[in-house]
Amino acid sequence: MSSSAYDPGEAGAKMDFKDAMSYGDYLHLDPVTSAQHPLSDAHDEMLFIIQHQTSELWMKLAIHELASAREKMNAGKMPSTFKMLTRVSRIFDQLNGAWDVLRTMTPSEYTEFRHALGPSSGFQSWQYRMIEFVLGNRNPNMLKPHAHHPEILGKLEAELARPSFYDDAVTLLFKTLDGPDATPPAPQLTQPHEANDEIRKRWKIVYENVADYWELYELAEKLVDLEDYFRRWRFNHVTTVERVIGFKRGTGGTPGVSYLKKMLDVQLFPELWHVRGDL
To answer: Are 164 and 193 in contact (CB under 8 A)?
Structure first.
């Protein structure tokens, strides 16, 4: 070793980890970086696997943040709620960037290993389904792909049994504007949230009286931010799939692009978008 080579140890950096926890130990990097098992010899299968694995890690964090944000909101701790919702929006920004990497794979390269996927598909991601359930896009039919995993099924069923994040936000809206005994519309536990005029009217009051209802206004805008990034993620998903497989059926049996395009019409918080036309 050259005597002129920089040695971080001379500046105080710890260099011996025989009896101490290292970076890799703390992060458990061995199981993470050894969890990629391509089933073909195709070069691009590694890209496909890592892109989806890292997306699942980001979704795990999104679920963690949403759970805490809901808890904080229901406890009246709005600054913490806002920070966590902002973080979820940035997580979806990261997920959007991942599509840019995947789009470097051409249709010819994907066909080299597509057969190895069998019937597996991102359509079956339980964490993505959990995020949709938490935010209010609820469809009990989407439990079926997880019936063979009782633990996962239980988590999803438990979420469907409670009001969504948006339902809780609407409850806060009504109780703030109409008093603590106010009764908001009943949560739509087992179907996607549908636009409600009474909810929209109350958001209109908030947007017309920002100074009086600053926290509700901030909450509304944080939710709009989140859905904005979420919509971009869906759009990038559609574009990437169309670019790589065209209008073929998805590996999981869905119609592929046509199915994904239907999802572009879903509004998680419709009243927050509709109220803009009322102002």
So the answer is: yes
